[in-house]
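FORM 12-B: Structure-to-Sequence Request
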């Protein structure tokens, strides 16, 4: 899934069944959520000698910073007077790059189970990826960003076959009558792209103004004027699938409803955050936050840690720098689950020869290393 290059607002979690892989990927820590806190946690894991894998439901790292405010300046990151949210994510990605930890994108974690014998965790994503982890670090923010779905009773039964929240294979729409719903970059980009393969493309949006890049809006209008696609201003009111296959869609317009033929409806309304399956993992969750003990940011289930926006404790501040601190402490406690027989030695990064070699690519002097 990680090779997908959809626009930033593209929904990614389409309902595709996936078989679970036979041999789970073994790791010390599984980081769930590649927002700013998850990315920094990966760096910290590397610093203290833990291996990790990172998963995120999105097709891009950065969490809220990338999804909600990529171009806004941030002023309260220590030692960085100002940078945009996107620059922060780029710097965090750069910071953890020397460790080469795998980042699995487009994977929403669904199931978490603890094995009775060795107390390790088996974690499975919606795409069938499986992990075997000594500890889990939840840096899942407000939950996974998932597509805003169509609020019609008939939609779920058609999902994945005739109703879609992402375009995974363009070829699946070859020769089909496709309706694309939405007014952002994703909807417009896909409406334009599908012109080349579909029998007919209709773009449906609730108002006559689009939220996409100017050039894209102009191209869509030009394509409509040239008869390459239709634009209909209105809202989806009903999906007509008498034999279980979509045949047409009722669209409510100001001048009255219209029924338009369609084999596929691709709804690209944007993303909403959803705690989703995390709510079923037996954690103490209050007001959408995972309750943690602030001595190590461990949840009510030993071995599962929660940091960043998803962590709940008295006086919690939903700030990136709070998440950095929480991740640092949580991983030091998580070390004990991965290496119960080892004593972790605290070393300042400035005195860590191995770390220096890894990051700077040269062996630093090993002398003077304090063992505090
Ligand atoms: C407009 C705006 C401006 C802000 N400005 C600032 C600021 O100036 N300074 C500041 O410190 N903070 C700011 N914040 C808050 C800051 O963005 C958050 O505190 C921060 O993003 C939290 O990081 P996180 O890594 O904990 O979670 P997130 O950034 O929310 O990332 C969580 C990630 O986890 C993934 N995920 C969730 N569940 C699953 C699952 N089951 N499987 C796989 N992946 C999953 C999500 O897809 C997401 O990518 C701002 C927030 C907003 C909305």
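FORM 12-B RESPONSE
SEQUENCE OUT:
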């Amino acid at each position: 899934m990680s090779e997908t290059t959809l626009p930033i607002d593209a929904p990614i979690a389409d309902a595709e069944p996936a078989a679970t892989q036979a041999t789970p990927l073994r790791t010390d820590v599984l980081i769930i959520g590649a927002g700013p806190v998850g990315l920094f946690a990966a760096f910290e894991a590397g610093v203290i000698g833990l291996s990790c894998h990172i998963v995120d439901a999105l097709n891009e790292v950065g969490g809220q910073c990338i999804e909600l405010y990529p171009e806004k300046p941030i002023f309260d990151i220590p030692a960085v007077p100002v940078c945009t949210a996107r620059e922060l994510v780029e710097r965090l990605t750069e910071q953890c790059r020397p460790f080469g930890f795998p980042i699995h994108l487009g994977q929403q974690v669904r199931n978490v189970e603890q094995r009775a014998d060795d107390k390790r965790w088996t974690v499975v994503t919606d795409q069938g990826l499986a992990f075997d982890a000594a500890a889990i670090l939840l840096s899942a923010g407000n939950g996974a960003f998932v597509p805003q779905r169509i609020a019609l009773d008939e939609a779920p039964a058609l999902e994945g076959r005739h109703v879609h929240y992402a375009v995974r294979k363009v070829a699946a729409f070859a020769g089909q009558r496709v309706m694309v719903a939405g007014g952002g970059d994703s909807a417009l980009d896909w409406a334009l792209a599908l012109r080349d393969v579909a029998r007919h493309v209709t773009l449906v949006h609730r108002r006559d103004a689009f939220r996409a890049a100017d050039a894209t809006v102009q191209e869509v209008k030009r394509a409509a004027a040239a008869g390459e696609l239709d634009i209909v201003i209105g809202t989806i009111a009903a999906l007509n699938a008498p034999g279980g296959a979509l045949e047409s869609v009722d669209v409510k317009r100001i001048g009255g409803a219209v029924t338009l033929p369609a084999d596929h409806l691709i709804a690209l309304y944007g993303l909403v955050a959803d705690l989703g399956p995390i709510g079923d993992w037996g954690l103490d969750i209050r007001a959408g936050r995972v309750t943690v003990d602030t001595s190590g940011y461990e949840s009510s289930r030993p071995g599962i840690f929660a940091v960043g926006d998803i962590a709940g404790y008295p006086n919690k501040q939903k700030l990136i720098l709070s998440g950095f601190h929480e991740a640092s402490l949580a991983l030091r406690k998580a070390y004990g689950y991965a290496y119960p027989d080892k004593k972790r030695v605290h070393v300042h990064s400035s005195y860590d020869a191995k770390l220096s070699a890894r990051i700077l690519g040269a062996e630093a002097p090993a002398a003077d290393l304090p063992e505090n």
